[in-house]
Design goal:
about 350 residues, alpha/beta, 2 domains, 7-stranded parallel β-sheet, 11 helices
Length: about 350
């Protein structure tokens, strides 16, 4: 049963491509939950708010402490779809004791957000949401990982269509995270943490795409690697990215979102086992990200009848129940295919 908060969820960047989809997904999940669309362009924010219903538009200035908002403005959560270079949004949430969720940071940018949490650990739930599409790879690892007594290797791959980079904010994030100087990506290899760079042999590997065609991919560094290594104990954990034409576009159809999860280790009887999960959304990455943000907000506020999340530092896979999330994914058009003899019937 839904228990909406009387105060709106503030979605900063909510008039952008992904932010507006997240607002619509939250509206579909919880029609009675108020939403505030925040941004610099109040007219654009008001247009999205008008389409949603039970929503307002607010002018937000990330360059200003307090975001340029009055202390009289009350919200139930802060969700950030743009890069906050000042990080004024975290103390804004902490001062109000409300949850905070951001999805734009990379591993090399992790420190400032963590430091804000450490400075006031009892004020807010701080969610570092920069797992790939806010959990589309991490949650299947946890769901199907239960079929293993011991996970040895986790390999996650995203195929990002070159026509699906997203709007200006998403494009800026992608450029920043893929062209920043220094180490390129962090992986866990044979039990050791290491950074791999362009000339490192471990930077690239071969896999197959969802059609079975060979695919060369390169190491990338969303937060999935950190969280899953800690939670599963797997000795080798990596996330790889390929940018090009997705299988659907090669068939002459619109681009899609393709995520591949490959697990190996020992099954519950101690025998060698491997499992692969392909996840596809026919409309690309934006609706997947939007839905997972909405599910995270739902969990943070207890909108589905659970208790609201207490103050702490989280990643999405720590908050979302994998089986419930995957059920919602199917309802919203995500196709899930498991390909292993032992797991053929395990599509829960």
């Amino acid at each position: 049963m839904s228990h909406p908060s009387p105060h709106p969820v503030l979605i900063i960047g909510g008039s952008g491509i992904v932010g507006s989809k997240a607002a619509r997904a939250l509206r579909e999940l919880h029609p009675e939950q108020p939403i505030a669309i925040g941004g610099r362009n109040l007219e654009k924010a008001a247009s999205v708010a008008g389409e949603l219903g039970n929503a307002t538009a607010v002018a937000v200035d990330l360059d200003q402490p307090g975001l340029g908002l009055s202390t009289q403005n009350q919200f139930s959560a802060v969700v950030l779809f743009v890069k906050d270079e000042h990080l004024h949004s975290i103390p804004f949430a902490q001062a109000r004791g409300i949850p905070y969720l951001s999805i734009s940071s990379g591993l090399t940018e992790l420190g400032p957000e963590v430091a804000h949490y450490i400075s006031r650990p009892n004020d807010s739930a701080i969610v570092l949401g920069s797992e790939w599409l806010v959990g589309i790879a991490a949650l299947p690892v946890l769901h199907y990982g239960k079929e293993f007594r011991r996970l040895e290797q986790i390999a996650m791959t995203a195929v990002l269509d070159s026509e699906d980079i997203g709007g200006p904010a998403a494009h800026a994030d992608f450029e920043r995270l893929t062209t920043a100087g220094g180490p390129t990506a962090m992986i866990r290899q044979d039990g050791r943490w290491r950074w791999v760079t362009e000339n490192d042999q471990a930077m690239r590997r071969m896999t197959t795409d969802i059609t079975g065609q060979p695919l060369e991919v390169e190491a990338y560094a969303p937060f999935d690697v950190l969280s899953l290594a800690a939670r599963t104990g797997a000795a080798t954990v990596r996330f790889d990215l390929a940018v090009g034409a997705t299988a659907s576009r090669r068939r002459g159809e619109p681009f899609s979102s393709e995520t591949i999860v490959e697990l190996s280790g020992e099954d519950l009887q101690g025998r060698p086992a491997a499992l692969r999960v392909d996840l596809v959304h026919p409309e690309g990455q934006a609706p997947v990200t939007a839905l997972n943000v909405a599910l995270t907000v739902e969990r943070l506020l207890g909108l589905n009848g659970q208790a609201p999340v207490t103050p702490g530092l989280y990643m999405p896979d720590q908050l979302l129940d994998p089986a419930y999330a995957m059920q919602r994914w199917r309802e919203f058009g995500i196709q899930i295919r498991v390909s292993a003899p032992e797991a053929a019937a395990a599509e829960a």
